[in-house]
Amino acid sequence: MSLKGNFWLFAIGRFISQLGWAVKEVALPLYVLDKAQNGSSAATGTGKSGKTESEAFT
Asked: Which of 26, 40, 47, 51 lies deepest, with the highest CB count within 10 Å?
């Protein structure tokens, strides 16, 4: 494969990686807020039950 072909494969791969990173940066906070049901419990690390994440999974 030529140098030009390798460059375009690299550039397209980088673009897809950056696009995935951007989607994750938006989706992850929205997912946390959805699971926490409100902003204050998301900020303090407690869920609906009032337990912290480590307590909830034990």
From this structure: 47
At residue 1, the 3 state secondary structure works out as: coil
Would you list the domain boundaries of the chain? Answer: 8-35
Give Cβ neighbours of residue 42 (< 8 Å, ≥ 6 apart).
32, 33, 36
| Residue (of 31, 35, 28) closest to 53 by Cα position | 35
Residue 33, SS3 per DSSP: helix
pTM for the model stands at: 0.52
Contacts with 12 (C-beta within 8 Å, 6 or more apart), sequence order: none
Residue 35: its pLDDT value, please? 84
Tens digit of pLDDT for each residue in 28-41? 988 888 888 776 65
